[in-house]
Write a structure and sequence with these properties.
This protein is α+β, with helices and mostly antiparallel strands. The protein has 14 helices and seven strands.
Amino acid sequence: MNRTVPHAETPDRGVPGRRRGPFTRWPTGADAVLATVMFLLVAFLEEGPGDTMVLRSRSDLLHPALLLFVAGAAALFWRRRRPVVALGVTIAAWLPTLGSSYSTMGGLVIITLYSVGRYADDARWGPPGIAAAAAALVGEGVFHATPWGDVGFGVVVMAVAWYLGRRLRLRAERADRLRREQAAEARRIVTEERTHIARELHDVVAHRVSMMTVQAGAARMVAAEDPRGALEAMAAVEEAGRQALDELRHLLGVLRPDAERDGLGPQPGLADLPRLVAQVREAGLEVTVTGAVREPLPARVDLSAYRIVQEALTNVLKHSGPGTRTEVRLSGEGDAFTIEVLDDGGGDAERAVADAHEGLPGHGIVGMRERALLLGGTLEARPRPGGGFRLAARLPAKGESA
């Protein structure tokens, strides 16, 4: 089967800075013009003395060879879609004219040999096609007693025509493969960025909404006995909602291709832990932070560390509830540092342990573990023997990916 490859047929399509000729822009029309021009040349010209070309006489035009000229020239119209068939037709039309003054279709054979190299899927058709054309050319040389040097030169021209076509095809295939790889890489980057944004959205929504839910529930419970405390709790809910909206606007701004990045605030990091701890304390957790990271961290490591702590505290608030004693430990060890978040389980420790044993980590632990793995680190999350839960993340201080 001999098909054309669309990208190979038009290798320069969509490539800036390159001019596209008529054979690339209008292939069907260009081939029709080529077939017409070649028919006129082989039909009206014949070899004259001294390797010249002269016009045929009118009487010579009315010859059965005219039908062979029509068939050979018409084959050029199919040289892209059926290049091997086109070569076979031109050689078959050329053979009956060998040794006569009508043997002028060598140019058609050269064009179709080029087309076989340029458009045929299977490269194995090239050598047999060259051999068949060379045999016909040798027969022509024998009939006309052509010097062997000229015959050899003609064979070389035919072989070079196929070779040039093949080289152009391989070049077009490489360019097409490069475009596909670039498109695949662009899709991979977009997918990775969307996954990152989805993870960020989950962290923001889960943390803020969890705090708002707990605070709203507390306000409802004390509204009758302590209206002032209920108002303070609802004010905290309002503040958490505003902060959630600010972070959502920041993240969704990334999805706008023409968004003004200069107006976006910086991503949070471990330096923002005091503010995070203050927020979860307002929601009812008893949180303490010990240790610190001495060396400055790369931005993505700093952000991931902050998000891991944020998600871990959110999980404590969600599963154990207000009043849970929680400790965040930061420690550095050479090229890595460790984050530990430990809680005592609070009033709902049994539920937290049961959830962990039932394998219900939810998206939170999955997202935290994915963050650590993307940076080349590790993350462990399991119940503590004496009650409560322990989460430990070990991250590279230099942010080298796995």
